[in-house]
Write a structure and sequence with these properties.
Helix content is 39%, strand content 25%. With 336 residues, the protein is of the alpha+beta class. The longest helix is centred in the first third of the chain and has 28 residues.
Length: 336
């Protein structure tokens, strides 16, 4: 990728990693940005949207124009940041080094005095060994390194010792929502029928059939929900991935469409009678999937991330310690 220059056009196939930062010029796709942003659900992209290096094209094929060279890409900047050696020492390590310098002078002085007074070289060496600050100098950085290494076991990465020591003065902690306070995995939270002839169970089943061959997290969540109820999901006869919009499936002579409201509107399917419910689910932070059979909307499913079981107790403990928690999220205030 060193040969890619600004302005070059690249064709990215499904499953490939985007090599450089750029802008989509053709194609609607879903990009897995979890490696760079932590977002668990693929982000839908269309022409004109930016894509960043290190992310993965999960569905569809698209053409992009490079806006940065490989050496200046987001991925390379992140790699350089991780590889940088920060010279900042923890204050306690600097203090130990400072005192060690004084101890060396004192040790040499005492050894010389011992030799002058006693005339015995071994006594002078003994005094020098006793006063040697090696253990004093090594103990502090070793303790800091051990602490950083131990935190790594719990998924907490700290680059510098001074950052570790500054933790004692923290009064505010900012949390990301998706994948931190939540599991980062969508689950089915709502199912609603829009046709009296279909029960909610029927809606979930037909949606699971539509998504039976899908690898999209939302599709897998629907299939998992159906399977956990003690059922086995029938496999669709044929499916068509509509990148960024949804999926079309063919099953026993029926045409099933599951996806965003925009997809059903494009197909000329009326979903206006589900708008009020969809708006309410959106306010809760849910993603809404509409389902149709043979050109008629029959139901809708709401999916959302779920709160980690330990999140509430963690926030409560922090508040009791006088630390203010702050939430960082791209969701609306109702969902947050």
């Amino acid at each position: 990728m060193e040969d890619v220059n600004i302005g070059d056009e690249l064709s990215i196939l499904a499953g490939e990693t985007i090599p450089v930062d750029g802008v989509i010029t053709e194609g609607n796709v879903s990009i897995d940005q979890s490696a760079m942003t932590g977002e668990s659900i693929p982000v839908d992209k269309k022409p004109g949207d930016e894509v960043i290096s290190g992310t993965i094209n999960q569905f569809g094929t698209f053409t992009m124009k490079a806006t940065k060279k490989n050496t200046d890409s987001s991925l390379q900047r992140m790699i350089r940041l991780a590889e940088e050696t920060d010279a900042n020492k923890a204050p306690i390590v600097s203090l130990a080094d400072k005192w060690a310098a004084y101890l060396v002078g004192i040790a040499l002085t005492c050894a010389i005095i011992a030799f002058i007074v006693t005339g015995q070289f071994m006594r002078a060496v003994t005094v020098l060994v006793v006063f040697c600050p090696c253990a004093f100098v090594l103990a502090t950085p070793t303790a800091v390194a051990a602490a950083i290494g131990n935190l790594t076991k719990y998924g907490i990465l700290i680059r510098t010792g001074d950052a570790l020591e500054r933790l004692s003065k923290v009064d505010t902690i900012a949390f990301d929502k998706t994948g931190t306070l939540t599991y980062g995995k969508p689950t089915v939270v709502h199912v609603k029928s829009l046709d009296p002839s279909f029960t909610e169970e029927n809606i979930l089943k037909m949606a699971a059939i539509s998504e039976s061959e899908s690898e999209h997290p939302l599709g897998r969540a629907i299939v998992d929900k159906w399977n956990t109820q003690g059922h086995r999901t029938p496999v669709a006869d044929r499916t068509e991935i509509l990148a960024g919009l949804g999926i079309k499936a063919f099953y026993e002579g029926q045409v099933l469409i599951a996806g965003k409201p925009e997809l059903l509107k494009q197909q000329g399917i009326d979903i206006s009678f589900g708008k009020t419910t969809a708006d309410n689910w959106y306010k809760e932070g849910a993603t809404v999937i509409f389902l149709s059979i043979d050109g008629k909307a029959i139901g809708m499913i709401g999916l959302a991330d779920t709160l980690r079981k330990e999140a509430r107790s963690t926030i409560t403990r922090l508040k009791k310690q006088g630390i203010t928690p702050v939430l960082l999220t791209g969701d609306n205030s109702s969902a947050a």
